[in-house]
Amino acid sequence: MRSDSDDWDITTSVGSTALFVAAARTLAEQDEEPLAVDPLAELFLRAAGGEWALLADPDPELTRDHILRSPDFGTSFRAHIAGRTRYFDDYLRAAREAGIAQVVILAAGLDARVYRLPCLAGAVVYELDRSHVLDFKRETLAEAGIEPLADRREVAVDLRDEWLDVLRDNGFDPGAPTAWLVEGLLIYITPEAQDQLFATLDAASAAGSRAAIEQMTPLPREEYTEMVESEQADDEAKSDWARLIYNDPRSDAAQWFSERGWDAERTGLADYLRAAGRPLPVVEAGAGHVGAPLVNLVTVVRR
Ligand SMILES: C[S@@+](CC[C@H](N)C(=O)[O-])C[C@H]1O[C@@H](n2cnc3c(N)ncnc32)[C@H](O)[C@@H]1O
Which one, of 194, 234, 192, lies nearest residue 216 by Cα? Predict the structure, then answer.
C-alpha cells in the first residue's frame, strides 16, 4: 500500500510502472502498422535486466506467460498504451506548430519523446519525476550515447509537494506559453494532490498555454476490492498494480479546467481508438481488464 511520502526506484513500487508502460510500447510496436513507435523503450527494458530484458527479446516464447501478452489484459493494455502514445505525440506536434517552445512533461518516467520527436527540436523540455527514475533514464541513455533533440532539463521532484519553485530554478518561464503533459500520473496521487497539481498548472500558465491529461474514472468499487484482495497467482500483477493506485472519486480534469478559463476537449480512449481504426478488443466481463474503457484523454487550452 502507498503512503504520503513513499519513494521508489525504477524497478520498485510506482517506479516500475514506468518500465511496465515502456514494455507495453515495445510490444505494441510489433503490431502491423503500429499507432506509435518508441524505439528507446526497448533500451530501457534491456538496461533494467531480468524479466524486463526478456520482454525486449525478439523471441516471444521467452515471455509467453507474461501478463502483457495475455489475450485479455495484455491485448487491451497494449492498445491503451499505443493509443495514448499517439494522442500525446500528436498533441506535442500541434503545440509546436502553434509556436509553443516550453514543454513540461510531468511524471516523465521513460517517456522518450525528447529523444524521438523531431518537432521538439528548438524547444526547452522539462522532465519531472522522482530522482532515482531520472537517474536510471539519464545513465541508460548516456551509456548508449543517445542525445536529446531539444534542450532537455531534468527536474527531480515529488509531484505531491509544491514543485513550481524548483521548476522555476531550472529556467521555467511562467510568462511564456507552456505545453504541459500529464500521462500516466493521476491515478498514482491522491485526489487532493491532483487538485493541488491542477492549481499549480493553472497558476503557472500564460495565455495560450495548453495541457494534455490522461485521466481514468475510478474502477467500480467491487472490482477494485477484488483485484486488491485476489490471491490467485495469475492475478498477482494486477493486484500489485491495484495497491499502487488511489481509486477514489476526484475532480474531472475537463470540468476543473473549463471552470477556470480554459477550453476543454475530452475524448474517451475507446472512441479515440475506434476512430483510429483500432477498436479496443472486447474482453469477457470479469476477464480482468477494466481499465482502458475508463480512460479519457483530455486537452485544455488557456484562453
Ligand atoms: C506509469 S509511469 C508513466 C511514465 C510516463 N509518463 C509514460 O507514460 O511513459 C508513472 C510515472 O509517474 C511517476 N510518478 C508517480 N508519482 C509521482 C510523484 N509523486 N512525483 C514524481 N513522479 C511521480 C513515476 O515515478 C513514474 O515514472
Answer: 194
State the Cα torsion 90-15-57-183 to the nearest 10°.
-10
Say if residues 157 and 163 touch (Cβ distance below 8 Å): yes
**From the alpha carbon of 111, which atom of ligand 1 is closest?**
9
Strands (E), the chain: 102-106, 124-129, 151-156, 178-182, 210-216, 262-268, 295-302
Regarding the beta carbon of 42 and ligand 1, being less than 6 Å apart is answered no
pLDDT band (50, 70, 90) for residue 290:
low
CATH class (in words) of the domain with range 80-302: alpha beta
Position 253 pLDDT exceeds 70: yes
- In sequence order, which residues have a C-beta less than 8 Å from that of residue 247 and are 6 or more positions away? 187, 218, 219, 221, 224
**CA 91 to ligand 1 centroid distance, Å:** 19
Chain centroid to CA 33: how far?
A: 22
User: Cell 519553485 identifies what position?
Assistant: 165
Distance CA 6, CA 133 (A): 14
How far apart CA 69 and CA 60 sit, in angstroms, is 9
C-alpha cell at 152: 532537455
- Taking CA atoms only, the protein residue closest to ligand 1 atom 13 is 107
Domain boundaries, the chain: 80-302
Distances (CA, A) of 112 to 134, 233, 289: 12, 33, 26
Going by CA atoms, what residue is nearest to atom 2 of ligand 1? 18
Confidence of residue 15 (pLDDT cuts 50, 70, 90): very high
* Ligand 1 site, residue 188, Cβ cutoff 6 A: yes
Q: Is the CB of 74 under 6 A from ligand 1?
A: no
pLDDT value at residue 148: 97
